[in-house]
Fold this protein.
Amino acid sequence: MRTLVVLPTYNEAESIRAMVERVRRSVPDADLLIVDDGSPDGTGAIADDLAAIDERVSVRHRAAKSGLGSAYLLGFGIAVEQGYDAVVEIDADGSHDPAELPAMLAMLDKRGADLVIGSRWVDGGSVVDWPWARRAISQSGNRYAKWMLRSSIHDLTAGFRAYRTAALRGLDRAVVSSQGYCFQVELAWRVERAGGVVIEHPITFVERTTGRSKMGPAIVAEALVRVTGWGVASWFGRGPAHAAAREA
Ligand SMILES: Nc1nc2c(ncn2[C@@H]2O[C@H](COP(=O)(O)OP(=O)(O)O)[C@@H](O)[C@H]2O)c(=O)[nH]1
Ligand SMILES: [Mg+2]
């Protein structure tokens, strides 16, 4: 499968090199796209250096921090346009282990999945180095979203994923408006409600050791409010669920 691995970056100068190396070692045939939002710490320049020495690596620079969701939408658009079969979402801070990618991509290829989620909240999945409060927020938030949206997915907010590109066709800013964790929820739910096959693959998420998280209370609030709205709307046959079903 022709695969594009999308790495969104904002101030990841300390981790981007190692991360690109790890991805290249794990999936040598995949292409990498770094989407940097004018990181003040110089991540964009490092990304350019990496692209200059490796033809499989390319970079898109955006002028200002514009959110994780829109960075991925840019990557997805390029994957569709350039005829990739699969597109991968992975954090640039080292939390996601690229060594899981061959197994995840094989599930798209051999088991007919449309979306494989690297999942923390299924048997065999785990999180390393999170304080109990963050663990509790993620776990209870995911339980709430799963219940509210009547989803079968245990880790709706997970940011480590492999999509069959065909499942992403037609998604752009006009239909996907969420930014942070909610972007992940919205996409997984769309694929699921459109009848796509979603498989959760257990992973160990390791908290970053360099740089800082870009997610804060506003991102959590966005997810809570929108998930609640979608859940209620879907009970009346409206919202993204309905739209996704119509698109399919
Ligand atoms: N291009 C871009 N990348 C972002 C933005 N916000 C977060 N990221 C990247 O998305 C990934 C996950 O973000 P992170 O802050 O680690 O989230 P956390 O793991 O949930 O704390 C990292 O690679 C970030 O650099 C953004 O606004 N634009
Ligand atoms: Mg992180």
